[in-house]
Amino acid sequence: MGKPALGARAHVPSLTIARADACAIPFVMATARTAGFEPFVGRWNEAQHRAALADGRHVYFIGRDGTEPIGFVIVRDRGSPERVTLIKRMAVCRPGLGHGRALLAQVVDVMFKETNAWRVWLGVFPENGRARRAYEAVGFMAEGVARGSAFFGGVHRDELVMALLRPEWEEKRPRP
Q: Tens digits of per-residue pLDDT, 54-79?
């Protein structure tokens, strides 16, 4: 089976997610360093990932299509008392196949099903149209620009804040 045409979306029926531990750090680091991701995806070193996994605030998820890892999501403040959870970072190995959208949708489902989260939010660089479209497809709505909120690549950059609230997620869920 060949590669899908540009712009085509692969159906990902076998996509699964699982919480990850320190064994996933090499995969996460390699995926974040995919060529072309430099302007959009943050890059922690191994020590930063280990610290995040140990701090009790971060949870890592790895998405798999069958047995192949296809991407990761780092969540911060899962189950926080404020009921607000941040999608800190995510990336997929091969963008444009629908994997990011499917991966994010599953992680969001876990956040709302397994915690009492009221709000799941993220920041995206405004010029990252591909990511924004994926987030919107999952149900995230743009709320505004946080000026200079990301210190990225040695400079302060604006972030578009997007969020999905529990009632919006519940409304989009298929009814049994």
A: 999 999 999 999 999 999 999 999 98
Residues 6+ apart with CB under 8 A from 20: 28, 60, 61, 62, 72
Is residue 92 packed enough to be buried (19+ CB in 10 Å), middle (13-18) or exposed (0-12)?
buried
Distances in whole angstroms, Cα of residue 43 to Cα of each of 86, 105, 152: 17, 23, 9
Residue 106: closest CA among 5, 16, 2? 16
Closest by CA position to 122, among listed 149, 82, 97, 94: 149
- What is the maximum span of the chain, computed from C-alpha positions, in angstroms? 49
Q: Which residues lie closer than 8 Å to 72 by C-beta, 6 or more apart?
A: 20, 24, 27, 28, 31, 60, 61, 62, 63, 89, 90, 91
d(CA 64, CA 41): 20
CA pair distance 99, 77, nearest whole angstrom: 24
∠ CA(157), CA(50), CA(80), 5° rounding? 70
In the chain, the domains with their CATH numbers are 15-172 (3.40.630.30)
CA dist., res. 123 & res. 163, Å (int): 9
Say what the pTM is. Answer: 0.90
CA–CA gap between residue 114 and residue 108 (Å, rounded)? 10
pLDDT for residue 38 is more than 70: yes
